[in-house]
Amino acid sequence: MAHFAELKTKPDPTGFTSDTHQVVERVVVVGNDCVPSDMHADGETWCINFFKGGIWKQTSYNHNFRKQYAGIGMIYDPVKDKFLSQQPYASWSLDASDDWQAPITYPTVTEEGDVRYMISWNETKYNADNTQGWEAVKSNDTSETPTKYNWNGTAWVSE
Q1: SS3 (DSSP) at 123
Q2: I want to staple 5 with a disulfide (CB 3.0 to 4.6 A). Which of 61, 70, 153, 154 is the partner?
Q3: What angle do CA 96, 156, 105 make, to 5 degrees?
Q4: What is the pLDDT of residue 41?
């Protein structure tokens, strides 16, 4: 079976920029008898004819081409010919593999014994102080207001 993503040109769905993007609206499955081979233009033409228009790009369920399998809301980059996840935060940028990376390296300490740090990114903290951004709570902290910890580059420090 072949899989195709229907694309719609829309303003940046994240709102981080005023750019327009080709955003995945839906993904459909098409029989192999309608598609001569992977990434063959006839498959896209078949989709255009069958679904009465639209912009279509084949996607690989096994991630064999166009980076990854397309999902609703993902972005198709026609220059890179890849499906990309939406930018999670305005401060994040794409790395050489076209994966989104935070401006601060992910913490190296993720647990202490049996206790795990539940780590998340805080864009507001980063915007206030570009040396901050990663924060966490401990997995065993069941209090109504758990203690928050900030990553200082080498260790977790409580707020």
Answers
A1: helix
A2: 70
A3: 5
A4: 85
Backbone angles phi, psi at 10, to 5 degrees: -140, 160
pLDDT at position 32, please?
83
User: What are the C-alpha distances in Å from 56 to residues 6, 17, 97?
Assistant: 5, 24, 24
**pLDDT tens figures, 94-105:** 999 999 999 999
CB of 86 closer than 8 Å to CB of 13: yes
Q: How many whole angstroms separate alpha carbon 51 and alpha carbon 53?
A: 6
The structure's pTM equals 0.85
Residues of the chain with pLDDT under 50: none
Containing 82, the helix (H) or strand (E) segment is: strand 82-84
Two structure tokens written together for 78 = 């026609």
- 22 sits in which H/E element: strand 20-30
